[in-house]
Amino acid sequence: MRVGAIVILGEHILTGNHPPRSASGVPGNEVAEWLDGAPIASLELLGQSALQRTVAYLRQAGVDSVSFVARPGLSDVIANTCGCSSAHILIDHSGMPGFVLRRVTDECIRNGLDTILLIRLGAYVEFDFADLLHFHRAKSKPMTRVHDSAGPLDFWVVDAAQFSRGELDLDENSGAVARYDRTSYVNRLIQASDVRHFIVDAFSLRHSIRPSGAEISPGVWLDTNAWLHPKARVAGPVYIGRGARVQSTALIARYSSVESSCNIGCGTVVADASILAQTYLGAWLDVSNSVVYGSKVANLRRNVVVDIKDDRLIRRTSVVPPFRRFFPGLRRVRSQLSVPARPAAPAGQADDKKHDR
Known about the structure:
By secondary structure, the protein is α/β, with parallel strands linked by helices. Helices cover 19% and strands 31% of the residues. The strands form 5 sheets. Strands 12, 13, 15, 16, 18, 19, 21, 23, 24, 25 and 27 form an 11-stranded mixed sheet that branches. Strand 2 (34-35) and strand 3 form a beta hairpin.
């Protein structure tokens, strides 16, 4: 039996598919799924995105073909992160994603696939793929949907023949859909707090993901071309991403992650926080209980997002999609912060500060 997968990066486009709710009750269609064109599934956490990890898992599990349905402008994101050709990426230019999905499924059927796994990426889900297929076949129903304790997930197993009979009816009350609830780990990746939970869960071995790179000492992970100043300090578990730079006397501690191409300034403390890719933190800052990307800081303790306009404090290290709408349910505050007076640098660190700039 040949199995294919269709990975959907976008909105809820399946008939009868109702947006899931997070633990805090935020509807799935109100969350920040797009970072000005880039889906949240492409967000790098501990060195890789949910998109990369999901596709790698499917390929390792023996899925014969993986295709993608996405919005315009995402073909490069998919091709670069997943290493696939444009022939497997169908971009919806019509504004009718359901029609585009049907085109992909028709192609899967022509290629002789018997079973199709439909995945709308958003949540990160771990389950036994072989067990899911065995369950689906044993139930003798045309469709199976994956659930967790919080409700249904956008993971479906569908008999390919079902597509040839017309539009899918995904109403779970119809009796045609089996319910599979043997997931081993689910993180819906809806809110900033979900990002922190994902990172902490990885360090705590609650799911299978391990940070990229090498564990240079117990709990301290250093990825390719990451650089620590000899006077920088780390207190694991922590992760320092590809090409990231941690300057003199900076401290990275307590389940923190610093993703690729970040620059952490001299004397800055990052504790129980995630600094997302291509973010610059200036000197002598204290960042804790937060998720930071570009100029935006989501403080989880105070449930607020601050947009800092002084690029001497924080900024993006290069032009990437802004972190707009990533923190649903949080009050937004726009801040015109001025640079505080910096304490005098300890002797011998003047050169380090010049280097940071």
